Known about the structure:
The protein is an alpha+beta fold. Helices cover 52% and strands 16% of the residues. The chain has three domains: 1-31; 32-71, no CATH class; 73-103. The relative contact order is 0.10. Residues 1-19 form the signal peptide.
Amino acid sequence: MLSPFSFAFTSIILALSKCEELKDKIDEATRLESGSKWCPVPLAGTQCPASGFAWHYKCCGDLNNECCFHLQNWAIVALVIVGILCLASFVLGIVRCLFCRRN
């Protein structure tokens, strides 16, 4: 059976490892893709346009020789949050209109 000290030590180690995993996931989600890319290889393929603040390009297509437009991860998250807030506002407005009428 584990002593209280070893149990606390093990719990702290597990919590720190979870913090590192969370930090890695946050870093991945907030990393900006940037720079010009060549699809499929430099000088022999298609050069993609330069990346912007809210978008970047990735290689796609059957032979990975086309440039496809993609939003940055933070922009997708921001659009989802704005969409949820708009939907919630609309639903709450309908509920208020239906159930909170003044007589």
